[in-house]
Each structure stands twice: as structure tokens, then as C-alpha cells.
Design goal:
The complex is a heterodimer of chains A (524) and B (341). Chain A contains 17 helices and 20 strands. By secondary structure, chain A is of the alpha+beta class. The chains are: A alpha+beta (524), B mainly alpha (341).
Chain lengths: 524, 341
């Protein structure tokens, strides 16, 4: 990290130039703007986040960290525009048997320090993630791996204890932490120094990183894709407020954003100077309920609540239409595991809701049920709309209890709640939704939900290597969970990227990708 | 008077300063007392903030490791940062470090970076924007307040007073957006987002900081103007002014020496009070314009449970507030020597 004036990011230099013009008494109308576009620099804004703690893939956990890491690193595999797993640092891969994946590495791939990628770096990356001492938050992605066998410097085999279908998705350049790091550099620098001055194989390498403010990247000349990257540098600003990201884009201070506020999207779509990419993201937003406590220990009560609110109305009011109602946790973009047919217990039906309530232990009423949420934005509105609708339909007494996100998460984990809003963004494998949120031992299952039939299906899903068959397993598993009203799915929200019309070559993927696209971006 | 008996140890100072009246011994005792009070206030403040922060739910490990964190990773993080030690021990570790001038490392919002480095980067920014805003507010209020008082009851007064009411009633974040829409997105004179630190370019800071400084200055200017107008009118109706007039002093002389000077005391006091607002109250504006100020640092740190950073900010804030209070008192003494007696 450097904070010297020499390394001042481009935006600043340009602003100062504008200041000089202004000071000279010349109105810098348009001039400021002209100067911005005329460089080989992409000014990318990460909007809504301003904290990056680490740029070490293995240690990363926050989404803004991933946004940058994706530009600096590659993984063995990646997702293409159809969300199929394709080779990245691997030249090819094959399923050798039920527990062995074989990879051929690309030859001549250079890390930012000039050293060449070999099978040893891959082995090192995976074993580092697995080690207890390193304590990676992404350890779970590789815990199924038993051994990494080096056959020659460009051939490896990854052996799992049992057949483990999610592994391919977990070895992509997504929120996985399995991006390949160079053994020599990491061992020489130590983990802490590497986290500040990371060395990857990505199209861009790190130049400076200013805490809570910006990250500057410069092109990696030795990048293994011919003709990439097209731009000399990328200046990433960390913009705490999503709406400030929009004004910065409109004002010409940045060229691309990582997100956009839902409320602004309808108006931005009318703006001809802005390109907007959107699609339902890989996320699930739901109301979680505590099965260990009354009234949610009663399946009829849970079903009654689940059928007592209109998810389409929620999408309109909360998201300004920027999303799709959910009747399960798996998002539509995981097409092979997504069942488009609405599940009845997750569709608004006042009559059935009342009937279910009458069957429940709490038919005579229950008293106040606080539902946790946080902040003042759409997360809070989800609960407001939920409580209002359910109370109107059933006469229940749901109230809105506002905490901080961190607190809400902790209260869910410790079981100190009745109901709460929650959601996940970016999981790329159906097991992360069904196996981890709904199965009895799933680590995201804070709710005490347990159904042996679902557990069995989740286990099957993990070991079924045929994609189509695997998809059917998850559809069946979700049928069970939603029939039990394990959680109350609300919607899957759209992801957005805003950019000026000059930005060419950004392909949006539903897991909310970002830095991985910098390599392909050109300024038209 | 019993003063010499009470403060015998200060004789050396009186001798050193010879016959000069400025540093009277009583003032020195006053400053010593204030300094002691200040140290106690800062430490007590830090302790209160620490206790409240620890009592609030939330875990820094979650802020860093995210919701995906597994229990062993959380435990490792807590151990590495001594969060598993007893409360008193943690506070003592922090305090002893702080007393040696070491604020420690940021826990969650800039993991592993020395907090002193964060503060060193942000203090000039907060100071610059604050001074910029105060200067604008003072320039505007001196003009508007004086005109309103001198032209009391006339059109100029009505206009100035109305502008002041408008300034007070407009929320500053709303004004910020209006300024951005007009000057940045509309006429494109100023940048809509982004602030150049004065340590990088003074001109750049003046240029990119103008809109936020204006947004911060507007409500302050309104308050200052009203205060100045009221105190000018009050001062003008004092008997000494009537006496001065009766001596045949010129209206200008009477205004400057009898009215304006007296009216400045409440005016300076209220400017001092507003400094507190400049430290933490402008976080919303800092957010809108992307200014990396101290207030934002503290708010971010509080949300992310970055205990040492919040504590360091508390210390800096309290110190600044106490210093500003001192400066205000000194200014008031200079304006009205009777106060130093």
C-alpha cells in the first residue's frame, strides 16, 4: 500500500487539472468530461461498499473483495456466458472417475511477478485453503478434497473422498476462494503481506490500494489471453452509497458500477447516455423462522404465514419490479435445478392460509411476533410489506424490529429470534442453497429445520455427477422444504451494472461478476 | 487578594514574564486545571465508548470473515486479535498502547492497517472541509447578519432573514443532492462525486470540495447570520452605545468598537459549537460526495465493530472539541478582557 502523491489515482489528477482550469477563470464545462474519456483507463465504481480487508482469495469473504480479486486472479475453471463451467487456467479437464477430476494446465501462464504457473501452485493453493492454521473462511469449498496429485508440471488430479458434484463450481473464479496463488511468492511474503500486495495470473495487477477509498490496477503484460487486457489501467473507487455511484456515473467521474439502487433503475432505463445490464441474480431473499420456538414449531402455522403474503406485490413495492417472486430458494439462473412451476405453499392464497391457521396450535392467536431486519432500505421494506400483508390476511401481530445486519445475523445464529429477513448473494451451486440452508446439518441452517427425506436428497445431490439428474433431485428436495414451509422464500432480486455507452465488452453473469470482465473491456 | 498565597509555585512564571500583564498567574492555573480536566474527559469518554461498544451485540469477526465464515475461522480471528481475552485486559492493552502513542491496527474496516495511518490520511480532509465550510459560512453570515441588523425592518433585512430561515430549514443532504443536480449533472461545473485530498492538491481540494463545503456551510451560515443579527441589535441598544453617541463619535466608530465587538462574543461561541457538528454530523454529506472524512471512518468502524478504530476516533474527536472550546474561550477573552479576570 502506498499513499504517495505520485500514486494519486487518475481521477484525482484529472480533478486537479479541472481545478486549475477553474482557478484560471475558464469555466471547465465539458472540458472536465472530455479529459476523462480520453485515457486508456476504466474507472470502475464498487457502489454500496467501501470496505476491503484482504485481496488474498483464500481469505476473502466480502463481495467487494471478490469484485477486485476476480481481476487479479484466475481459477482453474470459470463460468461462461451460459453459466457453464469451462476451463480457465486449465487447458482442459475431465471426470476420470466418480472421485477424480483430471486437469491439464495451460502452458506459459505467468504470474504478475513473472514466475510461471505450474501444478505445484495449484496443489499449494488447495492445501493452503484446507490448512487449519490458515483458517480460511472458504475452507468448505475444498474440504471434500482428499488429495491433489501432481502427475507432471502441467497435469494434476484432484481426488475427493466421495463423489462431490459441487466441486467443479467451487473451482471457478467466482466467490470460491480457490483462485490460484503462487507458492513461492506467498511463502516468501507471508499471508498478511500477500493479502495487501497480491500476485495472481489475472489480466490486471495491483498498483496501489487506499483503505476504504480506492484500488488501482495496471495491465499485466504477460496475461495469457491474446489481446487482453485492452486498457492500460483500472481505477476502482469504493463508493459507500449506491446512489452516489449513480451520480458519479452520470457526472462522468466513473464509467462502470457494480450495482444500482432498485428505485433508480426505472428512471435510468430512460437515460440514453447510460447502458444498463440486468437479470435475476444468483440470490435468494427469504423470511427465516425459528423452528425451535413457538409459533414456528407448528408446520400449519408456518404454511399459513407462507401463503398469507403476495410475493409479486412485494417485488413491485420493495424492488420497483426489479426481481421475480420466489417459490423456492434456488434462483432461476441455476436453470437445471430450478422448477418454474410455482409451489402452492409459497403462493398467496388467503383462503388456504386461513384454513391452515385454523388447523394450527395457534389458531386462537399468538401475540406479538417480532421480525428482524436492518437498515432503512429495501431490507427493511421486505419485512414491512411482509408484516403488513400477513397481519391483514390472518390478523397476526407481526412487528418490524430493526437491528444492524451484523446483529441480525448473530441473533439468527444463536437462535435468539422468532422470524427474520435474510438472503444470500452469489452461491453458484444448488447445494449451497438446498444442502447448506435446508439440510439438518447445513451450516447456513440456523433455523432448526430438519427433515430426513430432504437430508437424503441433499446427500444424493452432492454425489450425482449427471447435471440433469442432479437438477431433478434438487427440485424434489425443494418441493419437500417448501411444503414444510422451512423458510418463506420472497423473491430473487435483479443484479445490475450501469455503464457509460463507451464501455464495451462487459458480460454480466448472474452471480454478480465484476473484475473478471475488466480483461475484455474496451472503451469505444 | 489571597491569590499569591494560593499559587506560590507560579512566581517563576511571573518573574519570567516581567511586568507583562498577559500571562496572569490565575490564567495559568486556569489552563492547568483545564488541561487536567481535558485528559480526564478524554479518558472517561474513551472508557464509556468502549463499554457501550462492547455491550452492543455484533462481532468484528463476522464483519471481516462475512456470513460465510465457519466457526474455526471465527475462533482463529478472535484469538489473533485478542478478542477472546477478558474485557478489562483488552481495554488495558489498548490504553497502554495508546498512552505510548500507538493506536494499534484496524480490525475490520481496513484490516491490518495502522489506525494512526488512517487518521493521518483523514484528519487533513476533515479539517480542510470543515474550515472551508466555516469560512464560507462566516463570510456569508458576516455580510448577511450585518446588513440585516443595520437595515433592520427594511427590505434587505427581510430578504436576509428569509434566506436564513430557508437555510436552517433545508436538510443538508437534500441541499447536497440539489447542488449535485444543478452544478454537477446540469451545468457540469463541479464533479458530482469524488474529493481530492488537500495533501495531494490544494487547488483540487478547493475545486472538488466546493459543493460539499457549500452544503455544509448553508445551514451554518443561516444560524450564524441570525445570531449575529440578534446580538448586533442587542449590543446596539446598550447604554454604552448611547453614551458613545452622545460623545459625538462617528456612527462607524461606534458600530465597530461598541456594537460589533460586543456582538462578536456570542457569534464566536456559536461558531465553536458548530465545530462539533463538523466532526461527526456531516457523515451524510461525506457519503454523498465520497469524502473520506473522520466522521465516516468512525461510523464505518462502529458498524463493523472495529473497536480500536472507534476508540482512536473518540480520542481525536474529544481532543479537537476540547481544543476548539479553548480557542473559543481565548478569543472571547481577547474580545472582552473582563472575562479573563
Amino acid at each position: 500500500m502506498s499513499t504517495s502523491a505520485k500514486d494519486a489515482i487518475r481521477r484525482r489528477t484529472v480533478l486537479s487539472a479541472g481545478a486549475a482550469v477553474a482557478a484560471a477563470g475558464v469555466l471547465p464545462l465539458g472540458l472536465v468530461r472530455g479529459a476523462y474519456g480520453a485515457t486508456g483507463t476504466l474507472r470502475a465504481g464498487i457502489a454500496g461498499y467501501n470496505v476491503i480487508n484482504t485481496l488474498d482469495p483464500g481469505k476473502h469473504s466480502l463481495i467487494p473483495e471478490a469484485y477486485v480479486i476476480w481481476a487479479l486472479f484466475n481459477a482453474l475453471l470459470k463460468f461462461n456466458e451460459k453459466m457453464e463451467v469451462v476451463p480457465d487456467l486449465a487447458e482442459s479437464f475431465s471426470v476420470k472417475d466418480r472421485t477424480t477430476l483430471a486437469f491439464k494446465l495451460r502452458k506459459g501462464v505467468k504470474f504478475h511477478d513473472g514466475s510461471e504457473l505450474t501444478a505445484d501452485d495449484v496443489k499449494f493453493t488447495i492445501e493452503r485453503l484446507q490448512s487449519d492454521k490458515y483458517a480460511s473462511p472458504n475452507k468448505g469449498k475444498v474440504s471434500a478434497i482428499q488429495e491433489v496429485k501432481i502427475l507432471d508440471p502441467y497435469s494434476i488430479e484432484i481426488v475427493t473422498k466421495q463423489a462431490f458434484a459441487p466441486l467443479l463450481a467451487f473451482l471457478t473464479n467466482a466467490r470460491t476462494g480457490t483462485q490460484i496463488v503462487p507458492r513461492k511468492a506467498v511463502e516468501a511474503m507471508g499471508d498478511d503481506a500477500f493479502a495487501r500486495q497480491p500476485i495472481g495470473t489475472g489480466a490486471y495487477k495491483i498498483k496501489t490500494w487506499k483503505a476504504n477509498e480506492s484500488v488501482s490496477l495496471v495491465a499485466h503484460d504477460g496475461y495469457f489471453v491474446k489481446g487482453q487486457p485492452a486498457l492500460a489501467s483500472v481505477e476502482i473507487s469504493l463508493i459507500a452509497e449506491e446512489s452516489s455511484g449513480v451520480t458519479a456515473l452520470k457526472g462522468g467521474q466513473i464509467d462502470l458500477t457494480s450495482t444500482a439502487p432498485f428505485a433508480d433503475v426505472p428512471a435510468l432505463e430512460q437515460d440514453k447516455s447510460i447502458k444498463i445490464l440486468k437479470q435475476p441474480g444468483m440470490n435468494c431473499r427469504f423470511i427465516s423462522v425459528n423452528h425451535r420456538k413457538p409459533p414456528f414449531d407448528d408446520v400449519h402455522f408456518r404454511r399459513a404465514i407462507s401463503m398469507a403474503f403476495d410475493r409479486s406485490a412485494m417485488v413491485k413495492v420493495v424492488l420497483f419490479g426489479e426481481g421475480v417472486p420466489s417459490h423456492g430458494l434456488i434462483p432461476p439462473s441455476l436453470a437445471y435445478a430450478y422448477d418454474p412451476k410455482p409451489r402452492e405453499t409459497a403462493v398467496f392464497n388467503a383462503e388456504r392460509a386461513k384454513a391452515e391457521l385454523a388447523k394450527s396450535k395457534y389458531a386462537s392467536g399468538f401475540g406479538e411476533i417480532p421480525c428482524l431486519t436492518w437498515g432503512s432500505s429495501w431490507w427493511k421494506r421486505i419485512v414491512e410489506v411482509f408484516a403488513l400483508q400477513v397481519n391483514q390476511t390472518l390478523g397476526t401481530k407481526f412487528t418490524v424490529e430493526v437491528n444492524e445486519a451484523n446483529t441480525v445475523f448473530q441473533r439468527q445464529k444463536s437462535g435468539d429470534f422468532l422470524a427474520s429477513v435474510w438472503g444470500w448473494l452469489g452461491p453458484v451451486d444448488p447445494d449451497e442453497y438446498v444442502g447448506e440452508i435446508l439440510s439438518t446439518k447445513g451450516w447456513r441452517n440456523f433455523y432448526g429445520y430438519s427433515n430426513p427425506k430432504l437430508d437424503e436428497l441433499a446427500e444424493q445431490g452432492r454425489s450425482e455427477l449427471d447435471l440433469a439428474k442432479r437438477g431433478e433431485i434438487y427440485k424434489a428436495a425443494e418441493n419437500i422444504a417448501i411444503e414444510d414451509a422451512a423458510v418463506l422464500p420472497c423473491f430473487c432480486s435483479n443484479i445490475h451494472n450501469l455503464m457509460t455507452t463507451q464501455v464495451q465488452g462487459f458480460t454480466q453473469l448472474p452471480y454478480s461478476n465484476f473484475g473478471d470482465q475488466f480483461a475484455a473491456i474496451r472503451m469505444g | 487578594m489571597a491569590a499569591p498565597e494560593r499559587e506560590p509555585s507560579l512566581g517563576w512564571l511571573r518573574r519570567m514574564y516581567g511586568g507583562r500583564k498577559v500571562a496572569a498567574p490565575r490564567s495559568l492555573a486556569y489552563f492547568a486545571g483545564r488541561l487536567l480536566g481535558a485528559v480526564v474527559t478524554v479518558l472517561a469518554g474513551a472508557l464509556v465508548v468502549y463499554v457501550v461498544m462492547k455491550a452492543a451485540p455484533g462481532d468484528p469477526a463476522l464483519a471481516v470473515l462475512g456470513e460465510n465464515a465457519r466457526p474455526d475461522a471465527v475462533a482463529a480471528f478472535r484469538h489473533k486479535h485478542h478478542l477472546d481475552e477478558p474485557f478489562a485486559e483488552q481495554f488495558w492493552t489498548w490504553l497502554s498502547g495508546m498512552l505510548r502513542g500507538d493506536f494499534g491496527l484496524s480490525l475490520t474496516i481496513a484490516g491490518g492497517i495502522p489506525i494512526s495511518q488512517l487518521i493521518a490520511a483523514r484528519l487533513p480532509i476533515t479539517a480542510f472541509i470543515g474550515l472551508y465550510a466555516v469560512l464560507i459560512a462566516v463570510a456569508v453570515s458576516l455580510t448577511m447578519g450585518t446588513i440585516a441588523a443595520v437595515r433592520r425592518g427594511r427590505a434587505a433585512d427581510t430578504i436576509a432573514t428569509s434566506i436564513a430561515v430557508l437555510g436552517i430549514s433545508m436538510p443538508d443532504f437534500w441541499l447536497s443532492y440539489m447542488l449535485v443536480f444543478a452544478f454537477a449533472l446540469g451545468w457540469r461545473i463541479f464533479p458530482a462525486y469524488g474529493f481530492v485530498s488537500p495533501t495531494e492538491s490544494a487547488l483540487g481540494a478547493l475545486y472538488s470540495g466546493f459543493l460539499p463545503a457549500l452544503a455544509i456551510a448553508a445551514p451554518m451560515a443561516a444560524v450564524f447570520s441570525r445570531m449575529l443579527r440578534t446580538s448586533l441589535l442587542e449590543a446596539a441598544s446598550r447604554e454604552c452605545v448611547v453614551v458613545a453617541r452622545s460623545f459625538g463619535f462617528s456612527a462607524r466608530f461606534v458600530f465597530l468598537h461598541y456594537v460589533f465587538r460586543n456582538a462578536l462574543i456570542p457569534y464566536v461561541t456559536i461558531i465553536g459549537l458548530q465545530i462539533r457538528y463538523l466532526l461527526g454530523g456531516v457523515v451524510v454529506i461525506e457519503r454523498i460526495f465520497g469524502i473520506q472524512g473522520l466522521g465516516s471512518l468512525m461510523v464505518d468502524a462502529a458498524f463493523a465493530r472495529d473497536y480500536p478504530t472507534v476508540l482512536a476516533c473518540t480520542i481525536v474527536f474529544l481532543t479537537i472539541v476540547l481544543l476548539v472550546n479553548l480557542v473559543v474561550d481565548l478569543l472571547c477573552m481577547a474580545l472582552d478582557p473582563r472575562r479573563s479576570a
